[in-house]
Specification:
Blueprint (H helix, E strand, L loop, with lengths): L3 E7 L3 H12 L4 E5 L16 E5 H7 L4 H5 L4 E3 L1 E6 L9 E6 L9 E5 H12 L5 E5 L3 E7 L2 E6 L4 E9 L6 H5 L4 E16 L7 E6 L5 E9 L2 E11 H9 L2 H11 L8 E2 L4 E10 L3 E2 L2 E3 L5 E2 L7 H18 L7 H29 L4 H16 L1 H12 L3
Parallel strand pairs: 1-2, 1-11, 2-8, 5-13, 11-19
Antiparallel strand pairs: 3-7, 4-7, 5-6, 9-10, 10-11, 12-15, 12-16, 12-17, 13-14, 14-15, 17-20, 18-19
Helix pairs in contact: 1-4, 1-8, 8-9
């Protein structure tokens, strides 16, 4: 088993595995480690039931390395982003506005896939790359760097020597902590439930975000499940309310989520188990250090609004790949890593700030403030240049 490589990736989630494929396909020797083996079966205990919308720029990164061909058969296109304000006296739509990808592109905004399936296809693609060594069940514990290399300690007692460490190991990143890079965290007192549903009304490739209070209730298209239309749901709520919903018996929960969806898709029935997690915004003070680059949730965490999470992570990966290919001899040196920080830090800050504002608006409970939110949505939508700009920004178009 090798004890050195060009790139060591700490973290085997969707972002880390994608980085392993992308850099492996580009010809770099890669070792990827994660303390938990990936769960690649939908109904297995611990499976990640969230979904990810892969937006157009991310697809451009995934096609050359062979990943998109694996993802495409399972992807549900997102042609329309529908925003519904239901902040009136009753949980029913009062303003409905559609953002259609045809206004800015001849392609959908993106394509939605379940996270567990992404992991399955990523692991399968890794088996085609002899220069990538994936070691599930092994985590990173320590980091020692100097100008020419990094040495990483593993929880099995081993040590690895590498030119570049990529920390893709989550919001509590052990490699970020070992590099002594601080983070700033904003807590909202919110939690999000994620699950899949079946419904009688077809989604017609429309992603629907319903605003009332506590946070958005978002239904994102999935391929049909058991012969019925299906969507992934992320339901954001104040923490105590979210916990209560998570603990409800299934019939009561189905009644609550059907009401919260304003009945737009008919009665909703659970098509998976429920998962729950806290909502935060978190940003690292720097996204690089000596011989280390932070990406994905090690660098930034945002609420699940506007499909920005993984797509920000893949923008990190694109920047790292471009810099590595431009100067392979400088892989992991300060010139490369300072350039990476400069390329990403402003975009991360702006997107995190924008999502923070949207989340705070979606949480509003007082009726006058909810009325103001509805009026603001109506005004923004009515201005075609503003609407187009918002859509292009959401896609990551500059």
């Amino acid at each position: 088993m090798a004890n050195s490589c060009d790139i060591l990736i700490s973290g085997g989630g969707v972002a880390g595995l994608t980085a392993a494929v992308v850099f492996g396909d580009a010809g770099f020797d890669v070792i990827c480690v994660d303390p938990a083996p990936p769960i690649t079966v939908r109904d297995a205990e611990g499976a990640d039931l969230r979904t990810t919308a892969i937006l157009q720029p991310a697809r451009d990164l995934l096609e050359p390395c062979g990943l998109w061909d694996r993802f495409a058969p399972y992807a549900a296109p997102l042609q329309v982003m529908r925003i519904v304000d239901a902040g009136g006296a009753r949980p029913e739509p009062r303003i409905v506005r559609d953002f259609n990808a045809s206004e800015v592109s001849d392609q959908p905004f993106g394509w939605n896939l379940p996270n567990w399936l992404l992991r399955r296809e990523l692991v399968a693609r890794l088996t085609d790359l002899p220069n990538v060594d994936f070691r599930p069940g092994t985590g990173t514990t320590s980091l020692f760097t100097r100008q020419g290399e990094a040495r990483v300690g593993l929880d099995d007692g081993g040590r690895l020597k590498t030119r570049l460490v990529i920390a893709a190991d989550g919001r509590d990143s052990p490699m970020r902590q070992a590099a002594e890079i601080d983070v700033h965290t904003t807590r909202y007192g919110q939690k999000a439930l994620a699950f899949a549903v079946n419904h009688s009304v077809p989604h017609e490739n429309v992603s629907t975000e319903i605003h009332r209070s506590g946070g958005p209730f978002t239904l994102v298209p999935l391929p049909d499940y058991n012969g019925q239309p299906s969507s992934a749901v992320v339901w954001m709520e104040h923490g105590p309310r979210a916990t209560s919903l998570f603990q409800m018996d299934q019939p009561d929960f189905e009644a609550e989520m059907t009401e919260r969806s304003c009945g737009l898709f008919g009665p909703l029935t659970l098509a998976s188990r429920r998962t729950i997690w806290p909502i935060i915004t978190q940003k690292a003070d720097r996204i690089s250090g000596e011989r280390i680059a932070l990406m994905a949730e090690a660098a930034h965490v945002v609420p699940p609004i506007g499909a920005q999470g993984l797509n920000m992570s893949l923008a990190d990966l694109r920047a790292l790949l471009d810099l590595a290919l431009a100067r392979p001899e400088g892989l992991g040196d300060m010139q490369m890593l300072d350039a990476y920080h400069a390329a990403r830090i402003r975009d991360v800050a702006l997107r995190a700030q924008g999502i923070d504002l949207l989340n705070r608006a979606s949480m509003l409970d007082a009726r006058p403030l909810r009325d103001a939110r509805a009026a603001g949505l109506d005004a923004l939508y009515s201005l075609k240049p503003v609407r187009r700009t918002l859509m292009q920004m959401g896609l990551g178009v500059r």
